[in-house]
Design brief:
about 675 residues; six-stranded mixed beta sheet; 35 strands; about 30% helix; about 30% strand
Length: about 675
């Protein structure tokens, strides 16, 4: 039986299968089909020449929900909330984004739900969860009918005050809306984020409602076509905060999957780090349109329970990722005499100039090709020929001439700018948090990751870089390593010294029952569910919280000690104020069978190059002779001195004269940065 994973990016669709009997991997990379995403997925599966009847599980990562938001192509959405509170979503926190603080021409971004599509209805639950005013059922039905008939609303977000303490009004309203408008999609805030902060909870429900109809249609269509082709087993979607959930449950709360694509690579890097004894890793996923960076510390990727998309909050578990608009397809341009890269991308259609599909704007890929890093005859295993001369002509016309420089220097500048942007993102999640990047292994992947990663390592003085197996489809590979995961939470605000330990234990056990039930529903036995407890805590008077592991806590003194240690690690100090619990969290995990890899025997000596070509060496600051190697010909223990290029069908690894590569026993390329300061 085989496991299949498919990841949709902005430029390519990546597919990978793992045969559990033979241990073989098969990969395919096809162009994204933005007008019909299902077509690209099916094309990638067809490219694997795979009998879907042999597939025991299909894991999917998709940017469909994210793209629907970014491109503002989601459903027409309305809000039903408490009377007098319909403007909570617009008032928000009344603060400006830091980058706009001194912008005299600042205009607040357009909201997903304008005021006319926000309706307040009578009914109130107080902060303790008591019903102080019954819900006006007729007002709810009338509000839903008005939203649908007057404003063509397709999806409604229901968010009432203090629903995290008592969900009855939200559930009652949802039933009333279903009866009045059966074709409307409904998102209930307390079923997505059962926590306080009504603005953030409303925003999360709106995100879910906005992408829900599109997501449901896509999943149903894909599932139907897979079934027609012979697939009849488990269908999972990757979650933004790690792990997977069934496609059926993903349709209920699609906001949980809005960042599912980048999550796959982080899951994979964590697994490879554990396999190779590297517990501290910085992942850099460079695709066609963006670069995503994340820190894995002590074997665990950083998770946050509130994130932002274009300054709109989401209260869902997500990996702490820094994203910049710079990838292989990012367009390079000149603005007032300055060279800039991204965030606009050439995408899959028309793509970079060198693709020969009508692209006219130079991209990072065009620059890398002109500098000699990419074989014009070798992309996608020779299926896609690249036009180097057209790429150089485009660089000359759009960049070199306006900047009064050479094509080579313009191309080098494109990579310099790209590296600077990526280094800045990495420093945000390391240096600005008291972490030294030199203590980590850099793990670049994605189509452009192995090509650019060596530049990032040189800039950050990171001594070691690890390019994993199948790097161009590594996010899809990581999805093969994902477990089934469900998160449950409950508010409980109380000073630690005042906690009733028995009551706290009872609340945790109730959440664990929900987690076990969810895991069991996915086909696991109850005894196979692994549970993790966490407490959100802060000092009394603080606004922000930290996550404190709460498994096997022997008492309140130990809990306070754990909190202070986490606070010290995060902020570098502790305070005299009493610690306070804010919420309880339980993560339920159903562990899937995962691909395992045999450790290869070691081979001595240097590898033999298959060719040579001129390319730009950043260490030498000149075009020099690079040795070219085939990754499939390399064996464990063989060393490859830089400057060199290691080619494989779907990507290219580049390193320079102050770097050396070696293949480890699991097939990863380990690149040592000899010039790094230890």
């Amino acid at each position: 039986m085989k496991r299949l994973a498919v990841d949709i990016g902005g430029t390519f669709v990546d597919a990978i299968t793992f045969d559990r009997e033979s241990g073989e991997l098969a990969i395919d990379k096809t162009s994204t089909t933005p007008s019909n995403p299902t077509e690209g997925v099916l094309d990638s599966i067809e490219g694997l020449e795979l009998d879907l009847e042999t597939v025991e599980a299909f894991v999917h990562g998709t940017t469909l929900g994210l793209n629907a938001f970014l491109e503002r192509e989601g459903a027409t959405t309305g809000i039903i909330t408490n009377e007098g509170f319909r403007d909570v979503y617009e008032i928000a926190r009344t603060n400006l984004e830091p980058e706009s603080m001194y912008d005299l021409d600042y205009q607040k971004p357009e909201l997903l739900v304008p005021r006319r599509r926000r309706k307040g209805v009578p009914g109130r639950i107080d902060v303790d969860g008591n019903v102080v005013e019954p819900l006006d059922e007729q007002a709810v039905a009338d509000a839903a009918i008005e939203l649908v008939e007057e404003y063509d609303v397709e999806s409604i977000a229901v968010c009432f005050l203090h629903a995290y303490q008592n969900q009855s009004h939200e559930r009652q309203a949802a039933e009333l809306v279903r009866e009045a408008c059966p074709d409307v999609s409904i998102s209930i805030s307390s079923e997505i984020a059962s926590e306080y902060r009504e603005y953030e909870r409303t925003s999360t429900a709106v995100f879910d409602a906005y992408i829900k109809p599109t997501f449901e249609t896509y999943v149903d269509e894909l599932d139907g076509q897979l079934r027609e082709a012979g697939f009849d087993n488990a269908f999972y979607i990757t979650r933004s905060g790690g792990g997977t959930l069934s496609a059926a449950n993903a349709k209920q709360t699609p906001v949980q999957t809005i960042l599912s694509g980048p999550a796959g690579g982080i899951i994979g890097a964590s697994a490879v780090g554990d396999m190779t004894g590297r517990s501290d890793v910085i992942t850099v996923d460079i695709g066609g349109t963006s670069t995503d960076a994340c820190v894995i510390e002590d074997g665990s990727p950083a998770i946050q329970y509130e994130s932002n998309l274009e300054h709109l909050p989401m209260m869902i578990p997500v990996y702490d990722i820094r994203t910049i608009g710079a990838g292989g397809g990012s367009i390079a341009w000149v603005d007032s005499g300055l060279l800039k890269v991204g965030p606009k991308s050439a995408g899959a259609d028309p793509g970079p100039i060198c693709y020969g599909r009508g692209g006219e704007q130079p991209t990072v890929t065009d620059a890398a090709l002109s500098l000699g890093y990419i074989n014009p005859e070798g992309l996608l295993g020779g299926e896609m020929k690249l036009d180097k001369q057209s790429a150089m002509d485009g660089l000359e016309a759009k960049l070199a001439d306006p900047l009064d420089t050479s094509v080579r220097d313009a191309a080098k500048g494109v990579l310099d700018v790209t590296a600077a942007k990526a280094v800045g993102a990495i420093q945000e999640i390391t240096v600005e948090r008291g972490l030294d990047p030199r203590d980590f292994t850099l793990a670049p992947f994605g189509g452009a990751g192995p090509l650019l990663g060596s530049l990032f390592a040189r800039e950050l003085d990171i001594p070691e870089m690890m390019v994993p197996r199948a790097p161009s489809v590594f996010s899809a590979w990581g999805m093969l390593m994902a477990d089934v995961v469900y998160d449950f939470s409950e508010m409980h605000i109380e000073i630690v010294d005042d906690l009733d330990e028995n009551a706290l234990e009872s609340e945790f056990e109730a959440l664990e029952t929900q987690a076990v039930d969810a895991i069991e529903a996915e086909g696991f036995h109850r005894s196979e569910a692994h549970l993790e407890r966490t407490l959100e805590m802060r000092y009394f008077g603080q606004e922000h919280t930290v996550d404190v592991p709460a498994d096997d806590v022997s008492g309140t003194d130990e809990l306070s000690d754990r909190f202070e240690q986490v606070h010290r690690d995060r902020y570098g100090h502790t305070m005299d104020d009493p610690p306070e619990v804010v919420s309880l969290r339980v993560r339920g995990i159903g562990e899937n069978d995962k691909p395992t890899f045999e450790h290869a025997e070691e081979t001595d000596g240097e590898a033999s190059p298959v060719a040579q070509r001129q390319a730009y060496c950043f260490a030498e600051d000149d075009m020099v002779q690079f040795d070219v190697y085939e990754r499939s010909h390399l064996a464990r223990g063989q060393t490859v001195p830089g400057p060199a290029v290691i080619e494989e069908p779907t990507t290219t690894t580049v390193f320079h004269s102050d770097q050396t590569a070696e293949l480890d026993g699991y097939g990863n390329i380990i690149i040592s940065n000899r010039g790094a300061r230890q």
